[in-house]
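Curious: explain these tokens?
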Amino acid sequence: LKTDITGSFVFEHGTRLRFADLGIGASGTVNGLGAPLKVRALKLVARYDGDTGHLLVDDASLEGDHARAHLTGQGQLTFDANDALTLATLDLNADRFSVAMPGVVKQSVTLGRIAMHTVYTPATQKIDIQKLNISGGPMNAQLSATITLGIDTSPAIAADGTIAAMNVRDFLHYWPLHVGEGAREWINDNISVGRIGPISLHTDIKAGALDQPALPEDALNLSVPLTAATVTYVTGMSPMTNVQGVATLTGDTFRATIVSGNVGPIKASNGTVEIPQLHMHGPTGVINARIEGSVPDLLMLLDQKPLQYPTRFHLNPSTAKGTATADLTVRVPMLRDVNTDDVGISAKVNAQQFAITLGSHTKISNGTVGFDITNDKLHANGTVSLGGGPVGVDWIEDFKTKADITTTILAKGLVDETTREALNFHAADLMSGPVSVNAQILGHRGDLRRANMTMDLTPTTLSMDIVNYHKPPGVPATALVNAIFANDGSIKSETMTVTGAALNVRGTINFGANGDLAKVDLPLVRAGPNNDFSVVYSDTAAGGLDVNLRGRSADGTGLGHRKASQVNATATPPSTSPFRYSIHVDKVVMRDNVSLSSFSLDTAGSGTSPQSLSLSSLLGKSKIAASITPSDAGRHVKLTSDDAGSLIKGLFGFESMRGGDLEVNATLSPLAQAKGKAPLDYAGTVVIKDFKVTNQPFLARLFAAGSLTGVADLLRGEGITFDKLEVPFRAQNDAITIHDARAAGPAVGITADGYIDRANNKIALKGTLAPVYGLNSVLGAIPLLGDVLVSKQGEGVIGMTYSVSGNADQPDLSVNPLSALAPGIFRRIFEGSMPVPPEPQILPPQEPPPALPTTNPPPAPKLH
């Protein structure tokens, strides 16, 4: 090295160089550089002054299969007194440098200009790269480093540097393949676009550390800011765009902090990515992020492969509403081909104003729900509005089980009329008011299969008008219901048991496609003191109702009683739905302890108009019979009873009549009405013979007003005997018109004309009172003279006119005593005009329903 050297060196094609300890030698390779470098040509033109130790490189170039380089430079060698090298400095400038080594870099790497100042101290085996500047092209970097060579071990490297910002794909060109291999592969596969930098580098690699499988965490710190990046977090799902964050590579771990980003309209923030054990093949990366957005957008994201949660639960994201915030954790093996089951998912979601449709009927809204989702299960807990009523829900969906039941929902809340209608459960005729429900609903992958419900009916009003059962709110009652759901999520059938004060009902209910009751089969009904029977309600083929009732007893106190809710009801077109009733019970309990035994009723018709009827029963020892049969004028109705007083008492609570033979004959109008004409419901005559009236408050008021003291006393005593009562009547649009009604007995005769308006609970009657009718009416039998003196059948020579009007329950009553002075036809002057009921409303005509067979339907199940 003390000799002056001037010249050039040329290595011919095929020469191989091996790098050892960062110098040129005869053996060994540097760890991580792969195969030996094959050189086609190496040219070096240099001068070296042995006296001064100055080296000048005029021209140096390298041509090989995997590398090209051209550089110039100078150096200085310093020796001690023993001619031993004590210091070496080197300044190199390269104007072109490229490396294409498949085992080292992914593809060819080209650097523009390189300027390096290096100092080598043999005594300490240190190489100080005091300056390394790279400029030109995507890579612009500054680096300083100290390399301490070891003996039989890899060197120690301490370095600091910065790299200017560049596109992420360019950055990967310069990243050696075997440095942070797992992180490099993840970035290559999952960050398609974006810009990184400026990058800061710091290393503190101890001697021998490069010989180990992994670097210590504090040996390397590479900080890489990331902007405007597009990141794939789960293969197949919409990527995260416009990502802003910082990635950090340490000795054996890759970490990234995501400040913000978007997944479509969904915002992401507070994200982290961590890939530990980079030296291992396929380490598991953990991705955390907070995402915020609308519930439909989140559901559509979760419906993408490989997750497809909404599809699994048969949820339609387009029916959803609300906003949600989710803390998402994804665990992904760092492999190119990842099985869906190997991707770990954990999400905690809080949804506000949550709304969605389940199946085709169930709509929930205004929900505040928390979701906890993993690969194994979904757990949702919160409060939703179901048809306007708040319901607490706790939903668990088991993804891993092989059992048929994967869905378990616990629901608790008050279900009112609005909620029941929203659920397509139309039961207004049976119940009103809130129902407290505690339900366990079971299903498979979101499809509801069955439900077990406990219902507190204490705050609920229950009504069964046909048997006069009414449970007011506040009376304890409980229902246990087992429901089966149809494929569309609506209730298909229920098995129920209802118990409470004087209440025990057991049976099944089947529902139609639109939620209406299709069939009710109740083999046990004990409701109140007088109901003990079985009943089956079912739809007919024509959309009507078929009722079969069998049993020991039924409550008939509602027969003949008009509910207050029916008074002043708005007129609506009459129903045309067909019906059929078959009621056979041992006893029907009516008002005031009146009972009908061996009761048998079969009737069929449409709307409120029967087409056929057959009734037979016993009232004590008396017989009751009724029928509806076809006739030329319409439908003929006949009712007979040997004890009119008891029958009227049981039906209407009228307690003042004793005995009497009753016969009612009426004609019901044809079902089809002529256009523009108000319907005539029925017309006929009521005849009662040989009966007595006692203690009748209305008649007492009437007789007292007419100063008929003797008759009134008789009424209060043994009663007034009537030989015959005859009432011709016509009914039209809920108003009953009475014309030429008369009652006659030895003590008194009464006539009446007018009407009773049931729709408005009004009455208007006018007529005549004839005292001592047996004698008073004798002159009426004289031809011509009788017609003048009596004028009207049922009146006498002496009589007083009266009028009754106003509310039917407490009518106003007046008697004109002066009318007693005017016999016969002159009495008409005091009566005034005939009361006329209000004009009936003309309703749209309706087509006649199909004829129904008159045969009895099959018997219902026997009562157990």
User: Anything to note?
Assistant: The first helix runs from residue 168 to 174.
